Automatic annotation (TrEMBL):
Residues 356-368, 379-402 have a biased composition (Low complexity). Residues 355-402 are annotated as: Disordered. This is Cytochrome c oxidase subunit 2. It is found in: Cell membrane; Membrane. It is an enzyme of class 7 (translocase). SUPFAM superfamilies: Cupredoxins, Cytochrome c oxidase subunit II-like, transmembrane region. It comes from the Bacteria. GO terms for biological process: ATP synthesis coupled electron transport. It comes from Flavobacterium noncentrifugens.
Length: 402
């Protein structure tokens, strides 16, 4: 609402300014009977000062924006590499602001200084090698520096030595419109998976006959231990998705038919992040807005909103369909002990399949949902997929999630 008012005030101000210049013109009617459409010295003078007016507008709006909205930035990164990403971002911002501040002043000042004057002709010259050399080399050197630093940061963040580093492998499985996670278990190797094995509770198509799949655990809420590097392996069932974990400065596309990866080490537990000053301020601000909205809702006889508490999130950052906006999964960063306890309580996928098989089959004619129905499954023979046309084993091999 306030922003709308600000925009209205700005529009009205410019209309007033325009009207003033018209009145100013009218007062000149008697003194100057020049009604020609060609700009005279007076017109050029007005245009020259308007350039300064526009310059002031750009700067005032930029400074206003920085003060008004800078609290919306993400704040302290929650991953070990996060500071590097923020540093790169800050350097880029400083460069952009400096260059913009200098070039805009020059552009508008020269437009004013060399405004049209009667009997003055602009000097024409075709080129100036020295000048062109300077304005080509300086940006080239600065950009090359920025790109090299970016590449250095990228390789630093993306390079994972799976054999030497103590990494925990977790799969993120994307589908319209939800996320599912799979822990690789004690062996830190994910069992093979293929879309053809999707059946009943095995919604990720894990090859249950694969020895590496025996200790895999599938969950719908992601828990991570603080201080350990997590290597995420991403897959997508249908379209292009993007696993985006803003607080950890992590993002990677999830592409159907291939496995992509991203690794990071969480450095603050959810509880620690909630305790941070900037986060408490943020949460207080959100809850202030919620309280206002709740009062409106209650006045209308509707239920009030719940107060907000901070949680890390895994979001989808590719517009992947109608419910894309709601494709998210809560991430909880625990202490290593709490994480161990939480994971130990979760059943393995094999156990889940066995439980589903033991449950009585739904009565004939009962409405059974395709992905949640507990269909009986032979865990020992799941590798043998019943292809509709042939009795032979399925021609496609399970994809090793490496
Ligand atoms: Cu998506």
């Amino acid at each position: 609402m306030t922003s709308l008012l600000v925009i209205i005030v700005l529009v009205l101000l410019s209309v007033a300014l325009w009207q003033l210049t018209k009145i100013f013109d009218l007062t000149q009617v008697g003194a100057n009977a020049d009604n020609s459409q060609v700009a005279n010295d007076n017109d050029n003078y007005v245009q020259g000062y308007l350039m300064f007016g526009f310059l002031t507008f750009i700067y005032v709006f930029t400074i206003f924006g920085l003060f008004k909205w800078s609290h919306l930035i993400l704040g302290t990164p929650a991953s070990a590499h996060g500071a590097q990403v923020d540093n790169l971002m800050n350097i880029t911002w400083v460069l952009i602001f400096t260059v913009q501040a200098i070039t805009q002043v020059l552009l508008h000042y020269f437009a004013f200084k060399y405004r049209g004057k009667k009997d003055q002709k602009a000097l024409y010259f075709a080129d100036n090698d020295k000048l062109e050399f300077v304005w080509s080399v300086i940006p080239a050197v600065v950009l090359a520096g920025l790109i090299l630093y970016g590449l250095y940061a990228w390789t630093n963040i993306m390079f994972v030595n799976e054999k030497e580093e103590d990494v925990m492998v977790v799969e993120l499985y994307a589908q319209q419109f939800k996320w599912t996670a799979r822990y690789s278990g004690e062996d830190d190797v994910l069992g093979k998976a293929n879309v053809r094995y999707i059946e009943g509770v095995n919604t990720l198509g894990v090859d249950l006959a694969d020895p590496n799949a025996q200790d895999d655990k599938v969950v719908s809420e992601l828990h991570l231990p603080k201080g350990r590097k997590i290597l995420f392996k991403m897959r997508s069932q249908d379209v292009l998705h993007s696993a985006y974990m803003p607080h950890f400065r992590a993002q990677m596309n999830c592409v159907p038919g291939m496995v992509t990866q991203f690794a990071f080490e969480p450095i603050y537990t959810t509880a620690e992040m909630r305790e941070m000053d900037f986060m408490q301020e943020k949460v207080a601000k959100i809850n202030e807005l919620r309280a206002k909205k709740s009062a409106e809702l209650v006045a209308k006889g509707e239920t009030a909103l719940d107060p907000y508490t901070f949680d890390y999130l895994l979001l989808c950052n590719k517009i992947c369909g109608a419910s894309h906006y709601n494709m998210q999964m809560k991430i909880v960063v625990d202490t290593p002990e709490d994480f161990k306890k939480w994971l130990a309580e979760k059943p393995t996928l094999i156990e889940e399949v066995k439980t589903a098989n033991a449950a009585p089959a739904p009565a004939e004619g009962a409405p059974a949902s395709k992905d949640t129905a507990a269909k009986p499954m032979d865990t020992a023979k799941t590798a043998k997929v019943s292809a509709p046309a042939a009795a032979k084993p399925a021609p496609t091999k399970a994809v090793a999630v490496k």
